[in-house]
Model the fold of this input.
Amino acid sequence: MVEFAADPSHPRYASLLMRHRLEIAAQRGMLAESAMIAHGRGEAFDYLLGEQTIPAALEATKHALKSLCDAKHPVLCLNGNVTALACDEMLKLADRIGCPLEVNIFYRTPERMEALFTFIQERQNALGLNVTVFGEHPNGRIPGLKGPRAACHEEGILRSDVILVPLEDGDRCQALVDMGKTVLVIDLNPMSRSAQQATITIVDELSRVLTNMLEMSLPPAIDEPYHHQANLQSCLSWMAGAFERA
Done:
């Protein structure tokens, strides 16, 4: 096991903790080989945000949470990185909303799925929760996708009307949108295909988003309507001004 010895007073403690969680997950066989690269790319965008939740992201978070509260069949999706970085928060959010989770990964192997489900069950036991988690034995397929990543559950992803898919790949995001679902994405890159194609995109770091959702009232109070492209442009403008604020 990788020991985490960072001082909590360190100014980048939260970021170091996320890296540590990925190290542990990699040791346990939960991650694809490209997981660290994907996380590092996200960190670069988070620097431009100032490693904080900006107003546009908070507004998108409220709208996303309200969509989950208003849904008939909401589902929260987990991939390897999401499980490693924020398994507890995803379980707590699913429990609070009263919806299932579904594990759906890009590079699916029996070994990775076993490692992920073992870890999720450990966290469920530690938290004293009993959230339904689909994905171990899929019985359906996402139309328009090929290969193992199309595998899903009829009772989960296929049935969902609103789906939260953090750190999503563009092809699967588009396939879910094409199915007529309200697709909620958490993505630090406002220019990614997923961010552009989603119904609502939260340009923020995963654990911050989930912490914000867990602290909000249900349903959250909405101040203004959500405009997708305007929200993304606001996030881009904030990033563009990072050097002026430095």
Remarks:
- Residues 80-97 form the longest helix (18 residues).
- The two ends are 37 Å apart (CA to CA).
- The longest strand covers residues 74-78.
- Strands lie at 74-78, 101-103, 133-134, 140-141, 151-152, 162-164, 182-186, 200-202.
